[in-house]
Amino acid sequence: MPSTANSSTVSIHDVALEVERRGTGRPLLLLASEEQLEREAPFLDALAQQFEVIIPSPPGFGVSERPDWIANADDISYILLDLLDALDLTDVTVVGCSFGGWVAAEMAVKNTSRIARLVLVDAYGIKVRGPFDRDIMDIWTSHPAAVSAATWADAEKGKRDFSSMNDDQLTIVARNIESFARFCWDPYMHNPKLRERLHRIDVPTLLIWGEKDGIVDTAYGQAYANLIPDATFATIAGAGHYPHLEAPDSFLATLHPFIN
Amino acid sequence: MFAWHFTEMPYPNLPPLESLSTMRVSLANKHYDPMIGADLYNRYLDEYMIADDLGLNLLCNEHHQTATCLDVAAPLTAAILARQTSKGQICILGNPIANRGDPIRIAEEMAMIDCISRGRLDVGFVRGVPYEIFAANTNPTQTVERLWEGIDLCVKAWQSVEEPFNFEGRFTHRRAVNLWPRPYQTPHPAIWITGSSDLDNIKKAAARGYVFATFLQPHAKVKWMFDGYRSAFRDTGLPGGGGTAYMPLVYTADTEEEAEKGARELTWYLAAKSEPQYRNPPGYVPVEFNVQALKGTFTGRTDAMRQKSLEFLKEEGVMVYGTPDSVAAQIKRLYDLVGGFDHLLMMQQAGSLDHARTVKSMTLFAKEVYPQIRDLARTRPLELADAAE
């Protein structure tokens, strides 16, 4: 479970945000997936040896507050752009995973003055095809076992032992599940405007996709990449929706040339 | 005590239930035969008309994408009954206002039905049960807010008679709201609210003089909710004057053996299966409940009831069945256990319980049970001094 020991609280407008900072070096903003499984993951330790990794919990996630007015990834992106201002970070590498990747894209279409480069990992955020086409697997009408199978190349890796968690930890799990639904229910996991805004991203962008992602497949990732001017698309073998967690060595090998 | 006839209009002609993973949301509608459906709709409406002749009141509801309930538009049922019956009160319990998303349209429909029935309509509002979220695609984290905003707008629309008004709320924006028709009853029909655990909602309903209804719960929990209601009740003279309503499954027969057989068929409703993802959509219940769910200690009402014996369900007041005298005694016992209540909502038909046996049970109830319980005193406020607001 994520520890909050080295976290601090940063107030942005009316939101108290939980922000963890780890390591030293150039700033790297890590926008975690909706499940927030990243903090204890090996890939993060590797990054923290080279960067100061800044990990905010978006409103409603972790122990960050969730005011009623925050309704979607678009709203969250403003809060996190404000966070870059508040921390006075420049030349920031932004890495966003899954829901965090969507938020990262929403930030980059608005203002890249503090952002040097962008990495989107199996991100949501756009609708690619027509109204009858299923671009993003509907995880809320699917059996939990099917969701797990779509998320992980090896579904065993997705198993979480809730019985070992205390109430505070379970509260974070339950808040993350609830907030994710609040922000992503309808329109389902995308902002209809984002697709028409992606042309504004004016920093080098790398999209990294798990080859076996069954939630948003590689065709979706490639279509996403095609909409961003200076974008490169790479896939990771043997990984599903979370390649940074499931195949950290391949992930880092793909990431390093881009961020250095 | 007011007695109400109720059926969810089930479609029981399904493949063996063991072969289905769900009866709700995603059961393929190839299993629905429109010819059988036509017969069922007309049969269930006939039973409501018989209930009306027998002196019972008429309760209907709606659900979506489920074999447990073919009534997908309670206002249509209520409109038919408004025209085809003449005596009984008609209650929609309720309008899923959070899921329908157009409170003014609901206000109009209710006003029209109230006029056609010449003031026999009670209007329930419901948040909608968890699996309804999927058919409506309502954000599951906002249904309580949507419910109350919708009710506020409806009530304002019913009562606003001098000039149009605009509404710019969180979920609904309307301009120049001006209902034609307005309700037959002035200022508006009695309002009902349902609930199963949220005491704040129950007290809010009480403070506004709305009837509070709950279904198929163990009697101790019903008492807990009704006590919460009564502690907040204010006898404000609002339409309907508030009150409490409880729904068990009810089967009345000439012999105990026959009654038990009928009751067993009614448990079809409790056995309705659904896949796990439909039972607790994310954010439908508060975070504290979901912490319990992650620990495996919160499973919801239906799961808790599903495995219980008939005898257990009878003891808890979830099922009432027997000969007329036995049914009357069980209702009086339940009445005492929960601190009294005003409306007995009877699911007298469920599953494949056929027309003849449904009508037999309804008739026995109306003729031999209802006279024994009709005069039970209405709920009175317990502690006016503690009333909300």
Number of domains of chain B: 1
Portion in helices of chain B: 40-55%
Number of strand segments of chain A: 8
Strand neighbour order, sheet with most strands of chain A: 1-2-4-3-5-6-7-8
- Quaternary class: heterodimer
- Strand neighbour order, sheet with most strands of chain B: 1-2-3-4-7-8-9-12
Fourth-level CATH superfamily of chain B:
Luciferase-like domain
Spans where pLDDT lies below 50 across 5 or more residues of chain A: 1-5
Q: End-to-end span of chain A in angstroms?
A: 30 Å
> Which CATH class of chain B is shown?
Alpha Beta
Radius of gyration of chain B: 20 Å
CATH secondary-structure class of chain A? Alpha Beta
Number of structurally distinct domains of chain A: 1
Specify the biggest β-sheet of chain B: 8 strands, parallel, barrel
What is the mean predicted local confidence, pLDDT of chain A?
96
What structural category do the secondary elements of chain A indicate? Answer: alpha/beta
Folded structure, characterized:
The complex is a heterodimer of chains A (260) and B (389). In chain A, 32% of the residues lie in helices and 20% in strands. With 260 residues, chain A is α/β, with parallel strands linked by helices. Chain A has a single domain (7-259), classed as Alpha/Beta hydrolase fold, catalytic domain (Rossmann fold), CATH 3.40.50. The radius of gyration of chain A is 17 Å and the shape is globular. The two termini of chain A are 30 Å apart. The model of chain A is unreliable at 1-5 (pLDDT under 50). Chain B has a single domain, classed as Alpha-Beta Barrel (TIM Barrel). Chain B has helices at 34-53, 74-84, 97-100, 103-116, 132-136, 143-159, 199-207, 219-232, 256-266, 276-279, 287-295, 301-306, 310-316, 324-337, 355-373, and strands at 2-7, 57-60, 90-95, 121-125, 165-168, 173-177, 191-194, 211-215, 243-247, 249-252, 319-322, 343-349. Chain B is of the alpha/beta class and 389 residues long. In chain B, strand 5 (165-168) and strand 6 (173-177) form a beta hairpin. The two termini of chain B are 28 Å apart. In chain B, the strands form three sheets. Chain B has an eight-stranded parallel beta barrel with strand order 1-2-3-4-7-8-9-12, surrounded by six helices. In chain B, strands 5-6 form a two-stranded antiparallel ribbon. In chain B, strands 10-11 form a two-stranded parallel ribbon. Chain B has 15 helices and twelve strands. Chain A binds chain B through residues 140-144, 162-163, 165, 167, 170-171, 173-175, 177-182, 185-186, and chain B through 25-26, 134, 137, 139-142, 275-278, 281-283, 287, 290-291, 293-295.
